[in-house]
């Protein structure tokens, strides 16, 4: 076993070997969550882009399957899968269930077109459609189609990006083969970086029976400043998306460096909106120091909207819901004194680095209330996760977390608090992955780390003032 296997997350998907970036074609079908992914089947770096395939019944245990869609002259870039329930496309065997993949065919440095492939065996094997492309506007950069069935207008809707114009185009189709341009949306919000991997989703508003349309876009690049994923809240009438906030409003999905290209599972149970993202950053993806794989996915998260004092905000909750499992440790109503490490009794040294922690802060005068996770053998190796009451910011400090893999591997990741949300947080640590969802999931920071120490200790800390803790729970994930 290669020594870097110690960094392989246990309950997050990573390919057994070779490179991955974006999650693709995610769909729930006949009891399985299918995850296709940007994959190089031949190497541990970006190239030969194909769709890898894995499936899971619970979004924690993943089974990797053979490569689903291999590249030819064209690279198989990001895209989606939908269930063609009524065989509207007329493709394949009409007696069998039909899944349709629509993805970007990338002809390096030349052109990007939207292509179709279909499967009659629940996604195991795919046939590239002879009539490809299904959508071509002779553009060099035109990619990442994401499709859903829109009941009101009785058609499939595709969102697809024109990255360098900061635009998302919407197309409509009755049969998934012929696509007609409906409208374009763009040049709003954050336009500091290219736009890719869009998805348009209809999200429930917590505590009401209402729903709103939300457009998600990924923006990142290896050279300029990091943006990440942003979202726009508004309306969709079957043709056109309208942003209900003003053009300059910038709303971000995750303030960590390592969450990108998330798109939803199609056909998810109970009509829920569940997604996961690529847990890495283009800024240093090549430098991920692991072998024989590079790249991993985030945990799945359920999406909704919630009303805050600042207006509607995205809410993300981990799936599965840890609250429904018995914790390995629990304590309530105590004070963490200023500048004291509070050893969490009973949880001295964790046997393995895969666990979840839930903390409810009831009061704080501190500039850092939260967790300090330190190496057992090497106390100079640590990561801090928590809240700064003085500046009202959530933070992950990974500046001393182990191997610093690049100059762009920023030590501190910061997210502004959302006004009107309680100061609770959940963090899932799964070896090299750290995902923080705070304030009922309205604040997210996802970050990787590469600790050298094998075992670690978890403390509660409070710096520059005391912190009252209402409750802490820890789950050791087996
Ligand atoms: C986003 C992305 C997509 C593209 C894919 C190529 O991370 O650049 O726009 O389809 O990766 O691997």
Automatic annotation (TrEMBL):
One of its GO terms (molecular function) is sucrose alpha-glucosidase activity. One of its GO terms (cellular component) is cytoplasm. Residues 346-476 form the Glycosyl hydrolase family 32 C-terminal domain. The keyword Hydrolase applies. InterPro entries: ConA-like_dom_sf, Glyco_hydro_32, Glyco_hydro_32_C, Glyco_hydro_32_N, Glyco_hydro_beta-prop_sf. Residues 12-311 form the Glycosyl hydrolase family 32 N-terminal domain. Keywords: Glycosidase, Hydrolase, Signal. One of its GO terms (biological process) is sucrose catabolic process. The keyword GTP-binding does not apply. It holds the Pfam family Glyco_hydro_32N. Belongs to the glycosyl hydrolase 32 family. This is Glycoside hydrolase family 32 protein.
């Amino acid at each position: 076993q290669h020594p870097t296997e110690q960094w392989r997350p246990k309950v997050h998907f990573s390919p057994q070997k070779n490179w991955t970036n974006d999650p693709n074609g995610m769909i729930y079908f006949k009891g399985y969550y299918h995850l296709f992914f940007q994959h190089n089947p031949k190497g541990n770096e970006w190239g030969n882009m194909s769709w890898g395939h894995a499936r899971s019944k619970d979004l924690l245990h993943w089974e990797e399957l053979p490569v689903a869609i291999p590249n030819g002259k064209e690279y198989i870039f990001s895209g989606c899968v939908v269930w063609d329930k009524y065989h509207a496309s007329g493709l394949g065997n009409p007696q069998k269930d039909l899944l349709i993949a629509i993805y970007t065919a990338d002809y390096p440095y030349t052109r990007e077109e939207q292509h179709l492939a279909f499967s009659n065996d629940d996604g195991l094997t795919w046939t590239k459609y002879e009539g490809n492309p299904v959508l071509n506007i002779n553009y060099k950069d035109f990619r990442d189609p994401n499709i859903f069935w829109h009941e009101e207008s009785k058609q499939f809707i595709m969102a697809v990006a024109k990255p360098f114009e900061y635009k998302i185009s919407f197309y409509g189709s009755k049969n998934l083969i012929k696509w007609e341009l409906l409208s374009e949306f763009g040049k709003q919000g954050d336009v500091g970086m290219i736009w890719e991997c869009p998805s348009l989703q209809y999200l429930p508003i917590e505590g009401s029976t209402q729903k709103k349309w939300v457009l998600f876009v990924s923006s990142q690049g290896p050279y300029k400043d990091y943006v990440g994923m942003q979202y726009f809240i508004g309306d969709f009438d079957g043709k056109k998306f309208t942003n209900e906030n003003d053009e300059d409003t910038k709303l971000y999905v995750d303030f960590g460096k390592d969450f990108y290209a998330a798109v939803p599972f199609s056909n998810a149970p109970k009509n829920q909106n569940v997604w996961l993202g690529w847990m890495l950053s283009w800024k240093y993806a090549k430098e991920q120091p692991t072998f024989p794989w590079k790249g991993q996915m985030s945990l799945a998260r359920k999406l909704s909207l919630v009303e805050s004092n600042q207006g509607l905000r995205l809410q993300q909750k981990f799936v599965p819901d840890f609250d429904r499992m018995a914790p390995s440790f629990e304590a309530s109503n105590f004070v963490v004194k200023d500048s004291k490490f509070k050893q969490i009794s009973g949880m001295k040294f964790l046997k393995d680095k895969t666990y979840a922690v839930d903390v409810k802060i009831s009061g704080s005068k501190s500039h850092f209330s939260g967790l300090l996770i330190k190496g057992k053998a090497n106390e100079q190796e640590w990561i801090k996760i928590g809240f700064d009451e003085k500046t009202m910011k959530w933070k992950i400090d990974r500046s001393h977390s182990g191997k610093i893999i690049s100059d762009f591997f920023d030590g501190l990741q910061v997210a502004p608090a959302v006004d009107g949300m309680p100061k609770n947080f959940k963090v899932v640590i799964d070896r090299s992955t750290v995902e923080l969802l705070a304030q009922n999931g309205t604040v997210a920071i996802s970050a990787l780390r590469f600790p050298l120490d094998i075992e670690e200790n978890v403390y509660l800390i409070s710096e520059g003032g005391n912190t009252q803790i209402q409750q802490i729970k820890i789950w050791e994930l087996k």
